[in-house]
Amino acid sequence: MSTPINVVITGAAGQIGYAIMFRIAKGDVFGCNQKINLHLLEIEPALPALNGCIMELQDCAFPNLAGVFPTANPEEAFKDADACFLIGAFPRKDGMDRSALLQKNGGIFRVQGEAIGKFAKKTVKVLVVGNPANTNCLICQHYAGASLKNENFSAMTRLDHNRMLGEIAARLNVTTDKVKKVIVWGNHSNTQVDDASHATVELADGVKAVYGALPQADLEGEFAQKIATRGGAVIKARGASSAASAANAAITQMRDWWCSTPEGDWVSMAIPVPDDEPYGIKKGIIYSFPVVVKQGVVEVVKGLECNAHIQAGMKKTEDELIAEKQAAYEALNIQ
Ligand code: NDP
After folding, report:
1. Shared domain check, 259 and 271
2. Mean pLDDT of all residues in 117-146
3. Which of 68, 101, 208, 250 gives 20 to 30 Å between its CA and that of 3?
4. Are residues 136 and 275 in the same domain?
5. Last residue of one domain, picked from the residues 125, 155, 185
6. Of ligand 1's atoms, which has the minimum distance to the CA of residue 159?
7. Mean pLDDT throughout 50-54?
8. For a pocket test of ligand 1, which of 16, 71, 112, 229 has the largest count of ligand atoms closer than 8 A to its C-beta?
9. Is 188 a catalytic residue?
10. Ligand 1 centre from 202 Cα, in Å?
11. Distance 130 CA to ligand 1 centre (A)
């Protein structure tokens, strides 16, 4: 019987929290042979709603769920954490400017980063979902301190990656397992670069480049626009946000980080820019790259040729992340 691992979900009573906790408890991330303790962090007013979720967890009778610990105290939540899904964040309100949003979220991710640095295991994997995810992740890493390293942190760009797979597969009438090597570069925001220029698709007559199987002008125009605005389209159609697909993206990102990426493919992950500054992206921000993961070690896929259109987008999204960092550092008085 496996020793339980400690898995933290913040904002656990929210929409994404509700969509993710049952799948984690079932084994969709860490496998069916891994026992799990769920540490569920919420703000005090949301604890009664969280209690309802916990009743449902019990009623699912998941064999691998060893324990459920609800709390409003970050120090308790992150104690001995192995994996953290940081989902709870302050929502943007009407009329709120970006620096106010960064300040509000900076406060949340400061407290959580400090608790993670002090109380989580040194091998912890921290995945930030709450928006603005890349910059919240940067703040969290900053306050976690030097006892944790770059390899402990990532922010979620997997939803955009999965949206690309889904849309290409739909246009070519194949299942998504036939589509490989899409990339999301940069920030999880409107400036993200949805790059299909290295993607391949397995069709009846062999493996082809997606550039060619679909028109390049569409892929760099209307297709990319559709992916970047998908969240808004779901809200318009459903009257509620894309919580299920966001939860699924967090599940797939953590699963590949924990268990390795599939042979012959890569995934997109926003990570602290490594020391060798791949593709000329400067250190000090959390930027999404194509990566492979082997036994928990994340490596950026190097040496891909990027056309001028993609390169211009990569620079623009880098500039936005640098500006977000400056605004967050000013709001939090970080030197
Ligand atoms: P959701 O669960 O819908 O969303 C949570 C965060 O995920 C938001 O920042 C949201 O960004 C982000 N997100 C990323 N991708 C997506 C996507 N595709 N679709 C929707 N959201 C996405 O929010 P709720 O308001 O339902 O729940 C938030 C919970 O967090 C509440 O229960 C609240 O009590 C809790 N909370 C906890 C905190 C803590 O633990 N200290 C602090 C603050 C809140 P966006 O806003 O851009 O949609």
Report:
1. yes
2. 97
3. 250
4. no
5. 155
6. 18
7. 98
8. 16
9. yes
10. 37
11. 5
Best residue among 108, 241, 248, 324 to mutate for probing ligand 1's pocket (most ligand atoms within 8 Å of CB) is: 241
184 part of a folded domain: yes
Would 330 be classed as within a structural domain? no
Q: Examine the domain organization and report whether 136 and 175 are in the same domain.
A: no
Range of the domain at 130: 5-155
Taking CA atoms only, the protein residue closest to ligand 1 atom 8 is: 130
What is the C-alpha to C-alpha distance for residues 164 and 331, in angstroms, rounded to an integer? Answer: 34
Structure tokens at 220: 């760099």
| pLDDT reported for residue 223 | 96
Query: Which residue minimizes the CA distance to atom 24 of ligand 1?
Result: 14
Cα 335–Cα 324–Cα 145 angle in degrees, nearest 5: 45
Could you tell which of 9, 131, 157 is best to mutate to test the pocket of ligand 1, judged by most ligand atoms within 8 Å of the CB? 131
∠ at Cα 7 (123, 242), nearest 5°?
115
Mean pLDDT for the stretch of residues 299-319: 97
pLDDT tens-digit series, residues 79-129: 999 999 999 999 887 777 777 888 889 999 999 999 999 999 999 999 999
- End-to-end CA distance of the chain: give it in Å, rounded: 48
**Lookup result for tokens 């930030």:** 128
**Catalytic-labelled residue, pool 39, 142, 161, 188:** 188
Ligand 1 pocket, residues with Cβ under 6 angstroms: 10-11, 13-17, 41-43, 46, 87-92, 108, 129-131, 159, 231, 241-243, 246
Looking at the CA of residue 111, tell me the nearest atom of ligand 1. Answer: 41
Q: Which residues contact 294 (CB under 8 A, 6 or more apart)?
A: 260, 261
In a domain, 90, yes or no: yes
Looking at the structure, do residues 221 and 300 belong to the same domain, yes or no? yes
Residue 112 sits in the same domain as residue 125: yes
For every residue of 35-77, DSSP letters joined together read -EEEEEE--GGGHHHHHHHHHHHHHHT-TTEEEEEEES-HHHH
Whether residues 171 and 92 fall in one domain: no
